[in-house]
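Data card: per-record layout.
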Amino acid sequence: MTTVLKLGGSVVTEKDTPETVDEDALARAASAVAAHDGDLVVVHGGGSFGHHAAAERGVSSAEGTRSAADAVAIHDAMGRLNGAVLDALQGAGVEALPVRPLSVASRDAAGDLSLPTGSVATMLEEGFTPVLHGDGVAQSGAGVTITSGDDLVVALARGLAVDRVGLCSTVPGVLDASGEVIDRVERFSDVADAVGESDATDVTGGMAAKVEKLLALSAPAHVFGPDGLSAFLAGESPGTVVAGRE
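The structure for this 246-residue chain is written out next.
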């Protein structure tokens, strides 16, 4: 069984303080990943690293840059966070290897992401845990724009034989207008009035964007908080199930 897990940037960093890792939260997440039995691809968000670097330079999923210096600054910020995530995973006993999207991915003029997955598949076959992250990528007609961890999750789920998808964020699931966790989402209209943008600096969209992307998948997706991570990796269904085309 192959699982794709996204660790939200708000989970592994102090998202309102530039370039600050939440060491305790990251260590807990790494321990949960180490206990997982099965093939796993990890994706992490930008948190207080990539999002702040991109926002300072006016770069987002919709607004690009043709400055190589700006693109490298964003990529380097994500590299520092990726290094921290790899260190935590390897310290917990996970054979984690980085896969950096700037070098392998691209977006077409409409913003659709192309992500070759051959290297990821081979890493899995050889017993490694690939670790990807939100990043700047070249986009036709726009220079370099931001591709989110959520976009990468969708591309991986489509390019690999994935059985389960999980998004771990700081909220316990997709919430309704009263702040209660919605057990299951089958259509965006079910939650359109309740979901919105994230509160902290985020250049890739909030919960609404996540739900829309997950609904397009054939594999079941789960949205949950850090307390549900171990349960998800054990095969349970914490938080909200986004049914998509299941």
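Known properties of this structure: Residues 136 and 172 are 28 Å apart (CA to CA). The chain is about 35% helix and 20% strand.

See the next section for split statistics.
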